Amino acid sequence: MTETRAATGPVLEVEDLHTVIGGKDSRLMPVNGVSFTVSAGETVAIVGESGSGKTMTALSVMRLLPKAGRIVDGRISVKGRVISDLSERDIQSVRGVEIAYMPQDPMSGLNPALTVGYQVTEPLLVHHKGSRQEAEEDAVDLLGKVGIPDPSRTMRSYPHQLSGGMRQRVLLAMCLIGRPSILIADEPTTAVDVTTQEQIIDLLASIQSESQLGMVLITHDLGVVARIATTVLVMYAGRVVEHGSADQVFEEPMHPYTRGLLQSVDFDSVTPGTKLFALDGAAPQLDNLPAGCAFHPRCQYAEAACLQTVPELAPAPGGGLSACLVAARGDLPRWESAEDLRSGT
Amino acid sequence: MTSPPAAALLEVDGVSKTFNARRGGHSRRIEVAALNDVDLRIEAAETVGIVGETGSGKSTLGRIILGLEAPSAGKVQFDGQAIAGMSRKQVKQLRRRMQVVFQDPYESLNPYMTVREILEEPFRVHDLYDRQTTPARVAELLDVVGLPRSALGRTPLAFSGGQQQRIVIARSLTLDPDLLVADEPTASLDVSIQAQILNLMLDIQRQRQMSMLLISHNLRVVRHMSARMGVMYAGRIVETGYSADVYRSPKHPYTTALLSAVPVANPRRERERHRIKVTGEAADPARLPSGCPFHPRCWLAEEQCRTTRPALRPVGAQGQLVACHLAK
Asked: β-strands B228-233, B211-216: how paired?
């Protein structure tokens, strides 16, 4: 039954999610009205800088929030089943089974005192899916699939005996062994070298298309997003400020923050040794958000209304959704990508 | 005998560094060749970049240049003077002229000191503190790095990562150094902040005509900031030259791979781009392969690459040197 649903509807639906950190009166809201859906075979990237709420969004979906955190509003459904109000006990039948989370730091995701084999088979054994021997066969098979050269030997290794890239692969195997429909990968490439990063991205992409996983990719690296994402959410100060297809967001970004981010890493259209485009200032602290649009103090297009009104995420002229008053009016200047500038159009 | 070329501000000559380490809990000691026969020149007012991945030796090179680590072989000369064998007093003098900015500003700043104390400390350490002039110098440094005067009374924790890195940069400039070593100065910062800090460093370098060694894993950052660059792999410089040449027309397969691995922030160009995929991971300096250290990952490798270590030789543009048997 669930299989047919998965083929027709999204595997993950997040609706108007609000998460608060702190006590009753806390106004710290790292996730403030976030909505998105993920279909089978789709990769949704959540992009943002530190403190933007991207990891808190993932942890809310996983129900792995730190003790002080709680979901105060919104709904999360997996294959049509609402999971946001499940008890801690019931959520365990979803977590690691339907939906897996790959944390940023492979060393913190792995237990240094346990063998790779123990850790990769654990999700199966915990959920009573088959015997130990079957689990071990599955694990060896999967370790080979994620690119571990000698899987049987690696089963007996400890995490510290592996390189960063290999640990990342073990972690991925651990996430995949329960055959989840959704994988949330949190900065999967931040802790590894550039050449390894490329291998990990290619691996994620191939596994995803093969098994029709719905993937949520959390990252600050716009290059990685450009390579594998189908849909992009840009977060700033707890809110989604832009939401669209990867092609639209990169070709015709409709929020000034997205534009600023793209420009600050655009080395190719700047003469070496000259000034890069840089956004002024820094992202605000959540306990000290500016009035109106949280981005207005850094925005070159800000006008009086931006200081008063928090802009809603709304369809923008360039396609996609943007939370910007200026964009909604169609008054953002046309975006000239690096390529346009080079070809002189 | 012809007269030697005029000395550069910094000359690194055939520097190697071997560490003794224990691996895997065994008492057997192994040798880790972190750096192998590295040459590097930095002229006055020049920025040279070093790019490399984990274990490439780029940070060890920086530490040796700063005198924080002694080379196992070879020598480092600063302004014509060999650093090895210097007296303590001379080393202290030298420290005034070379400063460092590390990756993590938070780790570099004492959380219990105010910004004023942090910026005044170098003057005190070098007996240069002057009640009349120092406070004015400190205030001026805040202007240079774009922090408000009100920062003086606060401690590092009151600042964001980008602002903390500005404090570290201000401190590195207190004694007007001739050389700044920046080891991954923006790696721990958000992308919108990275551009700010790079712009600041460009400004400072120009205005003060300071020399800079920029160490980074990010080839684009290095290319943007430096006139010349070196690419390191497994403790060696495998390619060096003018940054424009190395970036536009890399000759070492590793440089090509590194360049290809960095994704472009544009899905259309990403799909169209021809990519070179290397297998495996960066060589472990404790277990270096025979011959060319890159050969196990190189798609062009031949028999000689497995047996004979390639030396740097001129290939490509003027000044471009490449350690590859096959580079043309």
From this structure: unpaired
Q: Of how many residues is chain B composed?
A: 328
Q: Is the C-alpha dihedral spanning B46, B41, B59, B260 positive or negative?
A: positive
Domain limits, chain B: 255-328
Nearest-Cα distance to chain A for B322, in Å, is 20
Is the pLDDT at A345 greater than 60? The verdict is no
Residue A4 has pLDDT above 60, yes or no: no
Q: Could you tell me the CATH superfamily of domain A2-229? A: P-loop containing nucleotide triphosphate hydrolases (3.40.50.300)
Burial classification of residue B318, based on how many CB atoms lie within 10 Å of its CB (0-12 exposed, 13-18 middle, 19 or more buried) = exposed
For residue B73, list its beta bridge partners.
B16
- Residues with Cβ within 8 Å of B276's Cβ and at least 6 positions away in sequence, in order, are B256, B257, B260, B299
Cβ-defined contact of A226 to B223 (cutoff 8 Å) = no
Q: Does A305 touch chain B (CB under 8 A)?
A: no
pLDDT tens digits for range A20-54: 999 888 889 999 999 999 999 999 999 998 889 99
User: Any idea which residue has 């396609």 for tokens?
Assistant: A319
Distance CA A33, CA B292 (A): 54
Residues B198, B191 contacting (CB under 8 angstroms)? no
B276 touches chain A (CB under 8 A): no
In the sheet that holds A99-102, the strands lie side by side as A99-102, A182-186, A214-219, A43-47, A231-236, A239-245, A321-322, A314-315
Q: Give the sign of the dihedral formed by CA B148, CA B150, CA B154, CA B157.
A: negative
Q: Which of residues 95-134 of B touch A (CB under 8 A)?
A: none
Could you say which of B224, B278, B282 has the minimum Cβ distance to residue A267? B224
Helix (H, G, I), strand (E, B) or coil at A190: coil
The answer to whether residue B162 neighbours chain A at the CB level (below 8 Å) is yes
**pLDDT digits 0-9 by tens, A283-341:** 998 989 999 999 999 999 999 999 999 999 999 987 899 999 999 999 999 887 655 55
Residues with Cβ within 8 Å of residue B206, at least 6 apart in sequence: none
Q: Which chain A residues in 103-122 lie under 8 Å from chain B, judged by CB atoms?
A: none
- Structure ipTM: 0.88
Q: Is the pLDDT of residue B22 over 80?
A: no
pTM for the full predicted model: 0.91
Beta carbons of A221 and B195 less than 8 Å apart: no
Domain boundaries of chain A, sorted by first residue: 2-229, 256-343
pLDDT for B92-147, tens place per residue?
888 899 999 998 999 999 999 999 999 999 999 999 999 999 999 999 999 999 99
